[in-house]
Amino acid sequence: MAVEQPLATPAGDQSRIHDIGYRGYDGPRLGRGYARLSLYSQTLRGSYGLGRSVKSKVLPMLLFAVMCVPAAIMVAVAVATKAHDLPVSYTRYAIIMQAVISLYVASQAPQAVSRDLRFKTIPLYFSRPIETADYVRAKFAALASAMFILTGAPLLVLYLGALLSKMDFAHQSKGFGQGLVSVALLSLLFAGIGLVIASVTPRRGFGIAAVIAVLTISYGAVSTLQAIADAQGSSGAVPWIGLFSPVTLIGGLSSGLLGGTNTFPGSDGPTHGQGAVYLLVILGLVAATYGLLLRRYKKVGL
Amino acid sequence: MYDPTVARLTYRALLGRRRALILGALPLLLIVISVVVRALAGADDQTAADLLGGLALATMVPLIGVIAGTGAIGPEIDDGSVVYLLSKPIKRPTIIFTKLIVAIAVTMVFSALPTLIAGFVLNGNGQQIAVAYTVAALVASITYAALFLLLGTVSRHAVVFGLVYALVWEALFGSLVPGARTLSVQQWSLAVAHKVTGGDLVTSDVSLTTATVLLVVVTVLATWYAGQKLRSLTLAGEE
Prior knowledge:
The complex is a heterodimer of chains A (302) and B (239). Chain A has 302 residues and is mainly alpha-helical. Chain A has one domain. Chain A contains 11 helices and no strands. In chain A, helix 2 (54-80) packs parallel to helix 6, helix 3 packs parallel to helix 7 (169-198) and helix 4 (98-118) packs parallel to helix 7 (169-198). Chain B is mostly helical and 239 residues long. Chain B has one domain (4-231). Chain B has helices at 4-15, 19-41, 45-71, 74-79, 82-86, 92-123, 129-154, 158-176, 185-197, 208-231. Chain B is globular.
């Protein structure tokens, strides 16, 4: 027969809301850092469908394959024809595949945050010892890492292929390094933009469409304007127009500062000075998206 | 075949709250860009055709089509509230048909109308370019809406697959593999637009007969199959 026990709460235990007499947990508590790390690794695994249903593995894996296969084909062709350089530079590759990258971030950013909003699991996270900043950092880092894997893997394929076909080691390593820097910035930028948009809507489908709209329409608009500015003879304006879409931001940075080939219409790409402006804008945007996310999660779902 | 209540609910789901603003942002951007281009470059037929073809018809129409087509039914199936609709004594094909009409109307208003305005801003309908691309957008709206409505009933990831079709298939493969253009709603609608205006700035890789037949067949088949899908719809939990 259950007898009412006096509910003695141990001193210093502040995480307990109420005690209905169950046996307490007195094992080790792994704390905030561990919770953050778990959130990071779960989101990163989830971005490729690992630990989720087969259906949700299809799309990320498919996009990953679509990213890598052209690189493999290029390498095979370069090896077979004994070319002295790769057909596409390391920094250019991500710009060519921008549609695939946009689709990936559009499908996985809502995956990372929208479902937590929709099923109201956010308050459960914040009842654990993690804080707003931990949640935002873990999600941001996880999506950026997933993007880096997606964009970095084909570069690795290109690099290994280039070394196998005995191209100039120093030249290839330099290009590979520059390519990695540019895709790292691309991952941060795209992940930030994707998460900010996705964190506004609890509807996954709508989040996907909104992210893709921002990335693709801005790229389409900027490319069109650049082409027109170039055709009208005001090619000085071309690099400045490029500042207004994420894809051209990365493209301009690659050709301006990282020695990549020019991806803009017209003969000469951004200068070093303009490349520095591009870098500043990218870093500013990444910081701004992080700030917006922090602000968004200050009062979400509570 | 048309149920006003279902139509009203669908309109509210598509345009309610802030959604109309987001849907309206894309067409607004197109018009702003055309104003800027007109101010920078003046009236030029080739520029107008490039902008309307590249931005309006190739990107904006499919995107609005995806949002309206899948948005007409997708969220309802997703959160399970579609059972309340399905339990009413309304034929399932009627539901699909009504939602299709709404999706087509929304797509047309938010894509064809801005295309017409942008065309007039760009070159004052010189060489019938504005009208040609508006016709293409109108025709494409119908088929896109039917296609993406079907996707919405078939898959939970309808938006992604719709975007993959619109961006990867039509834009990427269409520009690399000429054969892929035969199976592209965009090219079919361009064929119709070409016939209507007869200009040589609007061209298509598909002949008019093929395009018309394919447009009609795809629209009818997609609508019919969506109705069939809805008849045997099983609700499942999240993934």
